[in-house]
Amino acid sequence: CLGTIIDTSTISSFVVVAITLATDYLKLNAAENGLMILIFLVSAMIGSKVYHSIVQRLGLLTSLKAADIVWAIIMILTSIVVRGPGQKNIFFGLTVLWGFCFGWNVPNGRMVYIAIMPRGQDSEYMGLFQFFARGFLWLPPLLFTVLNESGVPMNVSFLVLPMFLLGGAVCYQIMGDLDKAIEETRGAGAIGLGVAADADADADADADADADAEEMVEKKEGIIANEETAVARENTRRDEGERLP
């Protein structure tokens, strides 16, 4: 849960902090802000497509840790390179990388969380996920604002976000082996086992129903065949009776 709090709160508040940096520090106008958002969204779509290939190469948990670290490095680079309105073009270029990492991180984080949810407790755990994702999104902007109001330059205050992402990567590292976690959580919980048993019972019931239906069809086919045979015999007797003098 701690890794989820750190990661999702940073992701959810990132757009607010980025637009504040672009508007107040780089002096982007409305059109330039719209262009930045468009670049970000297109790059995020690309990242969400490429993420599948990254997961296949690195694994689900390692891919998420890599997404946190790469995105943190890009944010640190942004803080170092972007020092005023004169770096707008560089800022737009870094926005491409931001969007790519956003599209990579968001589905990857959700997949890791879903993978370790106990069976039968999906609703409860997704509720916890939404709580942690939305309940702490105020924390990074608050720290960013406190530093900025204390006289710290805005590009330096921006370093709050990569610190959160690196903290999330550390939490995922402490988490250990994902396969073992999946095995433990999928087999834990009476509710999960009960639901699994109910699912098996439903499957057995469906199989029995299919078998009964097939048996009924076979019986009906047999009855129809017998009736056809009886009719044929009756017709044969009639024909023979008409032939007799």
Q: How would you describe this structure to a colleague?
A:
With about 240 residues, the chain is mainly alpha-helical. Helix content is about 85%, strand content about 0%. The chain is built from ten helices and no strands. The protein has helices at about 1-25, 30-60, 60-80, 90-115, 120-135, 140-150, 155, 160-175, 180-185, 190-245. It starts with a helix and ends with a helix.
Count of individual helical segments? 10
Distance, first to last CA: 99 Å
Shape: elongated
- Strands, count: 0
What sequence of helices (H) and strands (E) makes up the elements?
A: HHHHHHHHHH
Radius of gyration: 32 Å
Query: Are there runs of 5+ residues with pLDDT below 50, and where?
Result: 188-210
Largest sheet, described in full? none
Tell me, rounded to a whole number, the average pLDDT: 78
| Helix content estimate | over 70%
Q: Beta-strand level of the residues, as a percent range?
A: under 5%
* Alpha-beta classification: mainly alpha
Keywords:
245 residues; mainly alpha
Question: What topology emerges from the helices and strands here?
Answer:
Layout: H1 2-25, H2 30-58, H3 60-81, H4 88-115, H5 122-135, H6 139-149, H7 154-157, H8 160-175, H9 178-186, H10 190-243
